[in-house]
Design a protein that fits this description.
alpha+beta, 2 domains
Length: about 180
């Protein structure tokens, strides 16, 4: 019987030699390496889960603080509205109108300070910021805005609510008097 020569160690790169001979030592070494990788992966997964949960908690806390700040600014407006309603109960129409104007101005100012802007409705219809509710034949250019039914608003570059408008349609052709 001819004896097979043992396989020699194989070089895998600079300074690394891999023993390709099967054996209990090599199996134990590979099992340990597998276990180390599995442990590292499980730790990384746990760290990521903790990071995700911490980020969600921080986001909720930041949102709550922002809501609290906005509501704190709205409280004086609510007080003004209550005073206007009290004046209405006493049938003081002039005070009621003044109170409602005061509330409107205060609310609009607060919204502007927080970045709310009214969408322009002068000029042509823009489907990105306007919502056409109706089109009417008109002497105006086709697609121009004739009437604003409800104001629209944007917060930064995002549309919070599109402006609802009536737009001009092409003028109907005269059918010769029929």
């Amino acid at each position: 019987m001819t004896e097979q020569p043992e396989k020699a160690p194989v070089s895998e790169g600079p300074g690394q030699v891999s023993d390709t001979r099967p054996g209990p030592d090599r199996t134990a070494e590979l099992e340990q390496e597998r276990d180390d990788y599995l442990d590292a992966l499980q730790r990384l997964k746990a760290e990521f889960d903790n990071f995700r949960k911490r980020t969600a908690r921080e986001h909720e806390a930041m949102s709550a603080r922002a809501n609290e700040a906005l509501l704190r600014e709205l409280l004086p407006i609510l007080d003004d509205l209550e005073r206007a309603l009290e004046a209405a109960e006493e049938h003081e129409e002039a005070k009621l109108e003044d109170g409602v104007r005061l509330v409107h101005r205060a609310l609009a100012d607060t919204a502007r300070r927080h970045g709310l802007e009214e969408i322009e409705t002068d000029g042509a219809f823009d489907p990105h910021v306007h919502e056409a509710l109706l089109s009417q034949p008109s002497e105006h250019d086709e697609g121009s805005i004739l009437e604003v039914v409800q104001k629209g608003y944007r917060l930064g570059d995002r549309v919070v609510r599109p402006a609802r408008v009536v737009i001009a349609a092409s003028k109907p052709e005269d059918d010769g008097g029929r």
